[in-house]
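pipeline: protein-struct stage 2 | run 1193 | Outer membrane protein assembly factor
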Amino acid sequence: MITRPNRRNTGTRASLKAGLLLSAAMLAVALSGVGEARAFSLFGVHLWGEREEEIDNVQDPVRYHVTFSVTGGDDGLERFLRNRSELVNGENQPVDGDLGLLVKARDDLQILVGSLFERAYYGGLVNISIEGQNIEDIVGLPNFDRVNPVPVTVNIEAGPRFTFANIDIKDAPPEFDPAKLGLVIGTPAYSTTILSAAQDIVSKLKDDGHPFARITKREVIANHENATINVLIDAEAGPKADLGPIAIKGADAVDPEFIRTYSRLKAGEPYSPQELTDAANRLRTLKTFDSVVINTGDTLDENGQLPTTITVKDGKFRYFGFGATVSSIDGLGLEGYWGHRNLFGHAEGLRLEAGVSRIGVTDTLDSLDYAGGITFTRPGLFHPSGMFTASLAAGTENPDPYNAKTVAGSVTYSYEQNDYNTITLGSTTEYSHIEDAFGTEDYLTFSLPVGFDRDTRNDALNPTEGIYLITTAEPAYDFLNGTVYSSFSAVGSTYFSAGEDDRFTLAARLGAGTIVGGDSLEDIPANQRFYAGGGGSVRGYAYKSISPRNANGDETGGRSYVEATLEARIGVTENIQVVPFIDAADVSADNFPDFSDIRAGAGIGVRYLTGFGPIRLDVALPLDRYPGGDRFGIYAGIGQSF
């Protein structure tokens, strides 16, 4: 479904991708079977039953049984080693032949020894035997008895935990304090700490402009008499360097000069790995290239600069797609789109789209929501950090408070001030024919929206830290009615995480807005007033149903609003979250909220974390339901709710 971006409408429609419906159908089929109980997995997660052994690709399957024991060490050592052991983790899957079992055991020996080093046990002993024979004594091709699973025994003696005794970092700047690198005398000498320290030294030298920084020597000496470790790290910084001329390779349809400019890399600027990474990511976000790689030379050129090359591979410029959304309250929606990502050789974008929604919740075609539009984008116009956007959209919208037919054209220019801040300027002209609680009216409005956004989230679809702030000021004039008014709004979200791997995330959102000007509320077009309710607002209430009402109980929309949401995203497994939440809002006909009609909804949701974002399913109840309002709402989509 296509809508003109409008931050004044605080409620957004919830959506459920069609694939979820298919998954639900498959689950229903799986549950309908009777008779023998079978294993079942959903989205790759094993839910119940015995896992089926994958032996199709094993020509000579050999099953085995592991006896695993650890003597000594800290409380969590045995669990840590079991998790690392390939023999233990693969016990339910047969290996290919007797030799395959022997090879797996020998590989596991190296893994377990390295794992002991990770936990600072440098004097530990790992013994692995098969059918009572130490694997180091097995010569030639083995021949195991396969009447029963082959017995494999893993015995580990941890020994003492080693600590750092002496730290020597040579040829590194004095700011490299070993303690800041985790190398503290008297603390456990984890091998991972030593490796990380060496990597940190090289990274910091490169960040300081030394492209050829490297570790020339890393020596770890264990003293088994007193269980200590001496560490020697020898670093070589090499010369500082500036970037040389930026060469472009592989660009067939995209102007090389545009690539060079849009990357924001300039010859003569100091070498910075972060700047190179940012430049590559910036080019990838254009979605014009299949691949973007930035390489630097192994030596400096004759001018003492670092040769730098951007290598790209053009992608498929034309694309199309279809989508479906569904909600228990707002019905079914269908959409389709076609686009081009490189119209004139500067990554210009063109997108045509059309959609229809509210299928199933209305009996007439006139009551459906229709939308269509065309959008043109030109990245890097006037400045590498700029983006020009022009769009034309038309549609009908029929939420409970009003029926609107609109045609709107807009031009915007956004400027990325830095990695986090974006400033947007624009102009919008919109004609609308609206039927609402005040009657029928036509509007022809011209507005000048100004926006400032700040986004420090670590992940747009599944944030666990950072903030996201959207602010807008939009003065407007209605030519048909001579009304001058201005809208101001701000919405901020923040995230706090705790626990292992950020398993617990507390997310909070607060929004507020006001409209000033106009002699009365009806002078403001109904589709530009404030409302709340829906999957992106107060869940449990219908889309835009939270609103001031007239004497007949009809929604009028408001001049101001305040809205708050609090969620606790609790990871119960690596991929599944349980999310209790509460939403609340107050929408007022006055310029400032009077908090006389606060509506709240509460519920619980489930998130399944995937590589393309969380799959979201929420069930919410209105805590103060309107007469005749929905008793609950079900919302689904891709990504967290905010």
